[in-house]
Design goal:
The chain is α/β, with parallel strands linked by helices and 586 residues long. Helices cover 60% and strands 13% of the residues. The longest helix is centred in the middle third of the chain and has 53 residues.
Length: 586
């Protein structure tokens, strides 16, 4: 119970918001219709149980008229005149078809809503970035591996399993209460050691199901953790394959095929080893469940046979008793038959719950370093301390003013913390304290490796906002950035991140800046893949095309200092204390 209650709370926390959302009436209506259809099928099973008794009695009595009548009409049914088997079957088929159809309809609506909300949470406050830095969740485990799988696969599985298992449990509970009264009345009393046991077959079904449930849980308990681990190793293997595809050129240039093969083989071996563990445990569970099911087919007949052979029960009564026992025993054994699905569902719920916890932790991780509007036109840092995730301080209690209209270059040794400063200025670095005062106006940050989205070259150039830009303006920016040879391919859809060289990708990012026309432009090694002449030409283009923009560059190349008005150096103190920003000598 200690493990069950937190799990049910997670299920409730994940499932309830949709049924309270703006789609609540459609969601509740669909759910009510699905529940009604499923309960209708339970009711038809009750009717078929009584029909079964009458049908087999007609066979025992060799009553041809009753036999034919029961196929089409049924005058002495539990509710008087009722349709025969053909009518019941037609209605049952229609109900079953629409129960599945409406179930799938609710699934896709629910999944779409949950996907949109989880994407909103993941992208809000740049949690998608911070979540990779804040790796622990509230329960102390990792909740950040393979977010793509959690959003795409785990959400699909959660919706389908929650609906499927929930409706199945409800149907079995209703089936239990519907058939237990029938079985009680059919069982009669059984005398054991002078004691009369009324409704004895109900007690037999209870003991049988209880033993099966206990044995199933004992055998199948490790499956939940094995399924959780399998989802992770499957996603790790898939991610490694995608990463290889995205970095094919780098692997080919360095003859890294053998190393990549070894890495993929190691990940697949982890996948296969966990799969073998699942196979062994599932084999044991299937053997138990299959044996349990096989015994259940003949067990009620064996238990009821003495009353039949003593003449206290007709053949129809025997078959009705067997059917009612099977329904009661099956409902009581729901845990046994659904154990594998329950284990997989629990793993899915845990992955989604830990992912949501990780998102919340990431969204609230950067509150110590505040980004606020500046009163003037300058960009200022006040009492800013920057640290690494492990707690190492890179910059301590720094004050800095970046004057509007003056270009500044920040240089320093590799690893000193220049890129961390760049991220802090952008407001995405969560480890630190102090205040970053950001002036009004359009701001653009260009990292060393620009992001190039899927789609056409025009989409890559105008990302993330193409409003008001015509093709003539976009082509002019391409030419200005030195990519005039790509003008004719503006509307071609290619994997441009693989098609363009590193220098071309950086030129594309600078063309994007020319189109965005920011008031503040921050460049973190954004021209590092270019030769010095091209670098100087592009900075001259930026100055010419964006005369009112303030340019702040982070670079290793000392020659860039000549292209800026001011230069700062980010360097550690000689005694190993946190780094500092100081004017560059000369």
């Amino acid at each position: 119970m200690r493990a069950l209650l937190p799990f049910l709370k997670d299920v409730w926390r994940l499932a309830l918001p949709y049924f309270r959302s703006e789609e609540r009436w459609a969601a509740r209506g669909l759910l009510a219709a699905i529940v009604a259809l499923n309960l209708s099928m339970v009711g038809m099973n009750v009717v078929l149980n009584f029909w079964n008794r009458a049908f087999y009695n007609s066979l025992q009595d060799k009553d041809w008229d009753s036999f034919i009548r029961l196929l089409f009409t049924w005058r002495d049914g539990p509710a008087g005149f009722m349709p025969g088997f053909c009518g019941i079957a037609v209605v049952y088929i229609l109900v079953a078809v629409y129960a599945t159809y409406l179930n799938q309809w609710l699934q896709i609506r629910w999944r779409r809503w949950m996907t949109e909300k989880l994407l909103d949470q993941w992208l809000a406050d740049r949690a998608y970035y911070r979540i990779s830095l804040v790796a622990t969740t509230t329960n102390g485990g990792s909740g950040t591996d393979n977010p793509d799988q959690r959003i795409a696969e785990d959400l699909r599985s959660f919706v389908a399993s929650t609906l499927g298992l929930g409706l199945d449990l409800l149907s079995n509970v209703v089936t239990l209460f519907s058939f237990v009264a029938i079985l009680w009345s059919l069982s009669g009393a059984f005398t054991l050691f002078g004691w009369a046991i009324p409704g004895y077959m109900v007690w037999v079904a209870l003991v049988y199901a209880g033993l099966g449930t206990w044995a199933t849980h004992l055998v199948g308990r490790p499956l939940a953790m094995l399924n959780f681990r399998q989802q992770r190793v499957e996603a790790d293997f898939r991610f490694a394959l995608v990463r290889l595809r995205e970095n094919m050129e780098g692997v080919a240039l360095q003859n890294g095929e053998a190393d990549e093969h070894r890495g993929l083989a190691v990940r697949f071996e982890a996948l296969a080893a966990n799969w073998w563990a699942i196979m062994r445990r599932t084999k044991m569970l299937n053997a138990l469940v299959a044996g349990y099911g096989q015994v259940a087919t003949v067990f009620p007949i064996i238990v009821a046979a003495p009353r039949y052979f003593s003449g206290q029960m007709t053949l129809g009564g025997l078959t009705q008793t067997s059917g009612a026992f099977g329904q009661v025993q099956g409902a009581m054994s729901w845990f046994v038959s659904s154990y594998g699905s329950l284990a997989a569902w629990r793993a899915t719920v845990e992955r989604l719950a830990t992912f949501q916890s990780a998102i919340e932790a990431a969204r609230h991780a950067g509150r110590a370093l505040r980004v606020t509007p500046a009163e003037g036109e300058d960009w200022r840092l006040e009492h800013v301390t920057l640290a690494l995730p492990d707690g190492t301080t890179l910059l301590s209690d720094a004050a800095l003013t970046l004057p509007a209209g003056r270009s500044v270059v920040v240089s320093g040794r590799s690893g000193a913390g220049k890129s961390t400063l760049f991220r802090a200025l952008a407001g995405i670095w969560p480890f630190g304290s102090g205040v970053v005062r950001r002036p009004a106006g359009r701001v653009m940050f260009l990292p060393q490796r620009p992001y190039i989205p899927l789609g056409t070259l025009r989409h890559a150039l105008t990302y993330p906002d193409a409003a008001g830009l015509d093709d003539t303006t976009v082509r002019a920016a391409l030419r200005a950035a030195g990519l005039g040879h790509l003008e004719s391919r503006l509307h071609e859809e290619e994997p441009w991140a693989q098609r363009l060289s590193g220098g071309e990708q950086q030129r594309l990012a600078l063309a994007r800046a020319l189109l965005a026309r920011p008031d503040w432009l921050f460049l973190d090694e954004a021209t590092a893949s270019l030769d010095p002449e091209s670098e100087a030409e592009l900075y001259a283009t930026l100055r010419r095309e964006l005369p009112h923009a303030t340019i702040v560059s982070i670079a290793h190349n000392p020659a860039l200092a000549a292209l800026h008005d001011e230069a700062l150096v980010f360097q550690p103190d000689a005694d190993g204390r946190p780094g500092r920003l100081a004017p560059q000598p000369g």
